Amino acid sequence: MSLPISYDATSKKVKLLDDVKLSENRDLESEVEQLNTLVKDYINTNSDVPGLPTPQAFTKNLSLMVKKMHASSTNLMRQKKFKDAAKQYSIALGLALARPKFENFQLTMSEVVICLMGRCDALMMEEDWLSAYQDAEILCQLAAAVADNHLRKGICELKLGNALDAKADFERGLCFKPGHEKLKEHLKIVERVIAEENGESPSEATE
Prior knowledge:
This is DEKNAAC104120. By secondary structure, this protein is mainly α. The chain has helices at residues 26-44, 60-78, 82-97, 105-125, 129-142, 147-159, 163-176, 181-197, 202-205, and strands at residues 5-8, 13-16.
């Protein structure tokens, strides 16, 4: 069985046939996009076999741009321009994700996580809880051992009205860092919220 795709020799890209319904082939469309990205990065290496990804072999200019954009975003946070900061962090994130796929993935991950943390914090300050939650969810998958990521996610869950999920997030964060004061503080807060939802008194929640 052949796939409904064709190859354009001019652009050196694979594409879906014109009569393909995108709504029924989202997974294939995504795979084609990923394939085209890999081919593009491979061609740009100017080598039959891409070199091994090492910490020393990476696009330094790209990392410099990410750092500058991140610094600019952080400065906007200090000025309490949270909406603008979130946009700047998004640009920095886009730059980090634009790193060629044959380069060191660990470096990409590090830059992505740092940019996501910044954007998540900016969105939380803007009280855009759903968008912040989406970033926090990704952070908890990419950097689960960082307790602050579970704090971010838990706060978003609590603000979105999901107290039980928030409690689980705070408890999970405390597993990684038992002495985290903000996690302990928010765990007490969410326990009171759950108690009130269950018609219990605050004192009963702490027993």
